[in-house]
Amino acid sequence: MVDCGEGAQLQMRRSGLSFNKLGHVFISHIHGDHCFGLIGLISTFGLLGRTATLHIHAPKELESMLKAQLDMFFNYDIGYEVEFHPVDTTVQEIVYDDRSLTVETIPLEHRMPCCGYLFREKPGLPHICRDMIDCYEIPVSQIGNIKAGKDYELPDGTVVPNHRLVKPADKPRSYAYCSDTRYMPKLHKLIKGVDTLYHETTYADDNAVMAEKYYHSTARQAAMVARDAGAGKLLLGHYSSRYNDEQMLLNEAREVFADSFLTDEMHVFDV
Predict the structure, then answer these.
(1) Rounded average pLDDT per 10-residue block, the chain, 271 residues
(2) Selected catalytic residue, list 33, 88, 205, 228
(3) 84, 95, 178, 210: which could form a disulfide with 116 (CB 3.0–4.6 Å)?
């Protein structure tokens, strides 16, 4: 999960997402709309009998606040461990790494320590051609070797080259989440070539001065980041309540970057 505002667990239920599958929460900064739902989520997990560790990745300023909440509201064993991982919002570094994914911080400029997160899939193995397996009656025990690049030798000694048995792996996907930040002219260099970029879009051009003052971005500025990064698509969000119709934000963004889209509750986008 990336950020955890109020109502996060309600939205998880509406989405049909399993609470048991959530292992890591990445918090960008400690403004309430990005973290007020965290303690409620932790409480619900305890009531549901969770036993697996929940990992919280967030600016170090959140650690003492979270500990105080846990001590105040849960002065008993909640049944599982909450492990806090402080992140340095001033540098880009990998803060999570497993066999299929890495997560990097993206330094941002807001009114308090803040960072985005860049999710990158690791290259996968090639796909086995099912028709070739059937044709050569390749046993299941050999599929792993073939995916790893090995040729296959038939019982009569004939060698079937690996490239005839596999199809290229899917292209690794990447997603950059840039929460509250003012426009950063060099931000695109940190997310070059990203498939999908979420960038905050609090204001339109009519409030560019407000955006600069309060460390937020306009729709046009978000689109400039996406264009300069060579992103596949841009997702807009974090709209100011002064706009009754966000279409004007989308129109401004698309003047610069055509593949821009408005986000909304329960919308699903293909990374």
Answers:
(1) 95 92 97 95 92 97 92 78 96 96 98 98 92 91 92 93 93 97 98 98 96 97 98 97 95 98 94 92
(2) 33
(3) 178
